[in-house]
Amino acid sequence: MKIGILKETSDKRVAIVPDLVKKWTEQKFEVLFENGCGEQSNFSDGQYQQAGGRGHKREEILSNGDILIVIKPLEDKETSKIKKGCLVISNYQPFFKTDLIEDIANKELSALSLDMIPRITIAQSMDVLSSMASIAGYKAVIMAADHLARYFPMLTTAAGSIPPAKVLVIGAGVAGLQAVATARRLGAVVEAFDTRLAAKEEVESLGAKFVEVEGAKDDASAGGYAVEQTEEYKQRQKELIFEKCVKADVIITTAQLRGKPAPKLVTKEMVKEMKPGSVIVDLASSTGGNCELTEDNKTIVHDNVVIIGNSDLASEVPQHASQLYSKNIENYTKVFFKEGEYELDLENEIVKSSCMVKEGNLLYQKQ
């Protein structure tokens, strides 16, 4: 059975690194890789060849692969080139758009969506969302420090003392916690806000102060996402965040609602009151952003505040991001890869949750 590794058209990462190619060839899979698929992640064609892979043009892999693996879903014009019965593994984000998986079903293919792997204990090693979020949280702080016109740490010099930067992290999930840890390592004073009280202990263990608004609705079944809050709570939240924003040098926002636009937590009025030269990094930009002024995939300046909208910061650390991504896929495929073949057992909780389409049958709406 042939596994095809495709080059990303709008991402520096690659889904599979040479180490995994070697393991799969030893398991009797034939691995085809698109020429140059790993070059932006510092993995050469030679490394893939040494691992047992065979280089091909993109069109040949699309038409010959029994299993295709790509980080971002293929466009319709390429999906039409895939042979009938092929299994495509990607990130379909069906909560936001179902047209991609409907297209897969219409072409009698199968599709597994990595972002739909259940966030349960036995699937932690397969969780690409958490792996990539951790990198994004780290990179968000590095970018903020690069744009900030001030130091992060406190410094005492012969020329005088410099106070530490104040960082506010909104959303203390995986990305937020890594942002907290990174900002603390750089010497900043950090506060973090989250509606989930479970985050309080984790925030404080990293040496940051937890900003709490009483009366939050918490849903442990939300898979790590925030949940919609009452209007009364939102008003109290807005007042407290306003108070914290105007004192912050850097704001990192990560809050997202599954299947809904990101909550607007930093308003235009808050930005106007922030100190000149402050920086906002909005990791929720792809779903509308937590800042009212955010523009996805753009860096803008408004009222002397730099606002960076980027939900794909993991791709800015492509080598390690690819290694982690590939390891997640290795652990995931162990569930259904068997001696050079695969079997999608819908009785398995992990497969059932992540299988969007099986042999042309659309399953997502039935879950």
What is the average per-residue confidence, as pLDDT, rounded to a whole number?
93
Largest sheet: 8 strands, mixed
* Global Rg: 22 Å
Distance between the termini: 29 Å
Principal-axes geometry comes out as globular
Tell me what portion of residues adopts beta-strand conformation: 15-25%
* Total beta strands: 19
CATH A-level architecture of the largest domain: 3-Layer(aba) Sandwich
- Structural class from helices and strands? alpha/beta
Low-pLDDT residue intervals, each spanning 5 or more residues:
none
CATH topology of the largest domain: Rossmann fold
CATH homologous superfamily of the largest domain, by name? NAD(P)-binding Rossmann-like Domain
What can you see in these coordinates?
The chain has 367 residues and is an alpha/beta fold. The protein has two domains: 2-116 and 318-362, 3-Layer(aba) Sandwich (Rossmann fold), CATH 3.40.50; 132-316, NAD(P)-binding Rossmann-like Domain (Rossmann fold, 3-Layer(aba) Sandwich), CATH 3.40.50. It is 32% helix and 19% strand. The chain has helices at 18-26, 45-50, 58-64, 76-79, 99-106, 128-147, 174-185, 199-205, 231-245, 268-273, 318-333, 349-354; strands at 2-5, 30-34, 54-56, 67-69, 87-90, 110-113, 155-157, 160-162, 166-170, 189-193, 209-211, 250-253, 279-282, 298-302, 305-309, 337-338, 341-342, 355-358, 361-362. Strands 3-2-1-4-5-6-18-19 form an eight-stranded mixed β-sheet, sandwiched between helices. Strands 11-10-9-12-13-15-14 form a seven-stranded mixed β-sheet, sandwiched between helices. The protein is globular. The mean pLDDT is 93.
